[in-house]
Amino acid sequence: MTTAGGKTLGVVLAGGLSRRMGGREKALIPLAGRPMLVHVLARLRPQVDGLVLNANGDPARLAEAALGIPVIADTVEGYAGPLAGILAALDWAAETDGRIAWVASAATDGPFLPADLVSRLHAARAAEAADLGCARSAGRTHPVIGLWPVALRSALRAYLIEEAGRKIDAWTGRYRVANADYGTDPIDPFFNINTPEDLAKAERTYSDGR
Predict the structure, then answer these.
(1) How much is the pLDDT for 80?
(2) Furthest C-alpha separation in the chain
(3) Which end of the chain is less congested by CB atoms within 10 angstroms, N or C?
(4) Residue 57 φ/ψ region, left for φ over 0, alpha for ψ in the -120 to 50 degree band, beta for the rest
(5) pLDDT tens digits, residue range 43-80?
(6) How far, in Å, CA of 27 to CA of 186, rounded?
(7) Model pLDDT, residue 18
(8) Rounded to whole angstroms, how far apart are CA atoms 176 and 166?
């Protein structure tokens, strides 16, 4: 999504260890007959000016499901969590296309992303003249699903490397954050799949045509 402030790159974060899913590659777990990652990409792709997938290790394992989009690894060492994946996307944007001013992030285990997510994140941020945007549903914020300015990549790198920080809220708490609010009927659009039970619920939701 191109705004007056520049283009928006989408990044899907696939860096989790999936311990509650038995260590399986969560992005590739089938949901309604397709890898979970494919559902997330299909929902995010129309909303942004380009897409990347953040995943560490051998990118070949995700190449088919990634549908040709670039697979980028963390730019800091030590599996530093979601913020490291966001930084990798900010770095990729800055080094690839100087017209990209924003990165919109989503998780690979959230297959019900709203079709207007990125536009509403931009609108919420602009309305409050905030630094960042974050998704919120039923009063609960979802820090991994947000809007991040490329201009803050140096500050984020310093937090991750020099301060050894890892918590998203601790870093975003230094800035003004605007929330894009959503309801949860018939399902929370930011429902994420962490357990086999969650996967079964998602399958039922897709079978109901939601």
Answers:
(1) 86
(2) 48
(3) C
(4) left
(5) 999 999 999 999 988 877 887 778 889 999 999 988 88
(6) 24
(7) 47
(8) 19
> Can you tell me whether residue 13 is helix, strand or coil?
strand
Are the C-beta atoms of 35 and 18 separated by less than 8 Å? no
Give pLDDT < 70 ranges for the chain: 1-4, 15-23, 209-210
Question: In the block, which residue shows the tokens 């020099």?
Answer: 162
SS3 content of the chain, % helix, strand, coil (to 5): 35, 25, 40
Placement of tokens 């609010």 in the chain? 181
> 187: which 2 tokens?
């399902």
H/E element, 205: helix 196-207
The H-or-E segment that residue 103 falls in is: strand 100-107
CA atoms of 54 and 63, how far apart (whole Å): 12
Strand, helix or coil at 182? strand
- Domains in the chain (CATH in brackets) are 7-207 (3.90.550.10)
In DSSP terms, 103 is beta-bridged to 9, 148
Q: Measured between alpha carbons, how far is residue 185 from residues 111, 191, 205 in Å?
A: 15, 11, 12
- Residue 20: its pLDDT value, please? 44
- DSSP tag of 6: B
User: Is residue 176 exposed (0-12), middle (13-18) or buried (19+ Cβ within 10 Å)?
Assistant: exposed
3-class secondary-structure state, position 2: coil
Size (the chain), residues? 210
